[in-house]
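User: Um, what's this?
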Amino acid sequence: MGWFWADSTISTDTPLHPVQTSNAIPPPGCPLHAGPSANPASLPSKRPSTRSQRSCPVGLRDAPPSSADTPRSRLNPLNYIPSNLSQSRAKHQTVNLPTEREMSSIPRGDADSNWEYPSPQQMYNAMLRKGYDDTPEDAVETMVAVHNFLNEGAWAEIVDWERRFSRGLSHGWRACTRGDESFRNNATELARVENVAPPRLLRFQGRPNDVTPKAKIMDILRTVYPARFGGELPFDRHDWLVQRRTVEGLTKEVRYVIDYYSGAPEPTGEPVFYLDVRPAVDTPSAAAERLIRWGGDIWYRASGVAAREKGY
């Protein structure tokens, strides 16, 4: 989940950062959606590996620069994914998979273009490369569609944060005191008049084995108050490094953390997933942004502004 392609050659001298709520119905047998409540019988089996089964089949945790011709040295430093995954039909493959790649709506930070999603054939080859040998071939296209949908939802949340805070904390406070719902209803008009360049995605990294501090805290609260804080730990985590353009025309790198949660299934049995997207607390200003957004929405609802605006 959250993987794109970057075929251009990028220098590895650049330091790598550690690097809307979306619901989606995953296809049967998708290994990236193997949450704790998933039925193991419905998931593709995987050969023994030192890597967690929760991890993305196309990413690695670390990719230090190296001149040696090793698997890690061939990873693209923008996304920790091999840039040479084949579009060719796999051995013993019985279903023809499309090789067309869909363009995302997410601007790249290193080029005047958007990130591209992998084709179904590339995804299938990537999954075979990671050992998921019995992936249902007829489900791969749906897997790609679900992943693309969740990525677009994650980016929409990041853009929502950037609309609030790219002009500074004071502007962010004024925006947040209007409440999340009220702000979203006027976000298009705000973006039109603010004249600030939209954010761009520089690079990203899957970190499924690194539980975020917020997720750990929520897990403790679930133990103490299970009725109020039900659910499980995130089944995946991604860090996206975003280029923010300030109103002064300067650029700033902001790391966003995305936790992927499994929600309660629909009455018809389809699983539901939620994305928790927020800036990583790497700087005092990032911590302030999270506090302002949380506090501003609380103030908006507690002060009665929402009720007065609705004429109650």
Remarks:
- The chain has a mean pLDDT of 74.
- The first strand starts at residue 75 and ends at 76.
- Residues 105 and 303 are 37 Å apart (CA to CA).
